[in-house]
Amino acid sequence: TSILEGFCLTVREAKLLSKPVVSTNFPAIYNQLKHEANGLIAEMNYMSVADNICRVVSDESLKKLIIENLQLENLQKTQDDVSIIEKVIC
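Structure (tokenized):
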């Protein structure tokens, strides 16, 4: 959870490992997460955070969707990185 963050490294690390993320709602999180697509964004209170954690743990279809979306993001990012490297060295 965070009140203010520029870029959350723990969110990035979890995404790289294709692990579902629950974050609090602060402006910069929208650069990293899309609610119910690649993570969950909770309101700035403990009940919302707890509810969203329980939701991602208990809702298998939601968890599967988030993991699949994270894997696709990671694949696309890898392909983009390879493309950039190929342009530089070729």
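The chain has three helices and two strands. The mean pLDDT is 92.
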